[in-house]
Amino acid sequence: MAGTKITGFHFLKSDIINRLDKPRGSTKFWTYLIVGLLIIGGLPIIMELYKYSPSGNNSDSIKLAVFTFFAATVGSSSLRLMLNDENSPIRMLGIFGLTLCAVITFSLVKNLGSIVGYWSIFACAITMLLSILWWWICNGDDPIFDEQFTDHAATGGDDIDRQLPGNLNEFEG
């Protein structure tokens, strides 16, 4: 239709769907997600879990590590979207994510001691899942995760009969 106008929300919806779908088969993406984000980024959480003593019954340091992981992951991913120079709907999504990150982080950390029992496990699980999902949305279309392979890459390209540059005239063997 010639006069159809696409709104920013329609653009964001299709872009988010593309960002969620595009990297699913990328080994680079999954390696970065697992090694870079979960293992290395989650190292403070792993360290706090290692130090945790059930007899002490104080899990505030674990909760703080999880909430800090949330803030670092969501905040840096949102900033990446805000620095996008292609279009403004993506920038607005970044501003929304950064604002939401600040509100959630400050409210969780301020009430760190009052979140107890199953609610603390629930809050930690939700913030971890949200931060991973948000990172995925923000980085799903990054060209660094594109994987394109050619069958003839080892031979120098598709045309294996072409004349190669250089010569062996001065080679003494």
Characterise the protein shown here.
By secondary structure, the protein is mainly α. The chain is 61% helix and 0% strand. It has 6 helices and no strands. It has helices at 8-21, 27-40, 43-51, 60-82, 88-110, 118-139. Helix 4 runs antiparallel to helix 5 and helix 4 packs parallel to helix 6 (118-139). The longest helix is centred in the middle third of the chain and has 23 residues, at 60-82. The chain is flat. The relative contact order is 0.14. The model has no long low-confidence stretch (mean pLDDT 84).
Helix content: 55-70%
The separation of the N and C termini measures 70 Å
What summary fits the major beta sheet? none
Radius of gyration: 24 Å
Specify the structural class.
mainly alpha
Fold blueprint:
Blueprint: H1 8-21, H2 27-40, H3 43-51, H4 60-82, H5 88-110, H6 118-139
Helix pairs in contact: 1-5, 3-4, 4-5, 4-6
